Amino acid sequence: MQPGASLAARPDPRFAEVFREHAPYVWRVLRRMGVREADTEDLCQEVFVVVHRKLPEFEGRSSMRTWIYGICLRVASDHRKRAHVRREQPTDELPEERRSAPQIGELEREQARAMLDAALAELDEDKRAVFVLYEIEQLEMKEVAEAVGCPLQTAYSRLHAARKRVTEAIERRVRGER
Amino acid sequence: MSEPRRLLDDPSTGEALRAALDAGRELPDEAQLASLAARLGPLLGPGAEEEPRPRREEARRR
Question: Is the pTM of this model over 0.95?
Answer without folding.
Answer: no
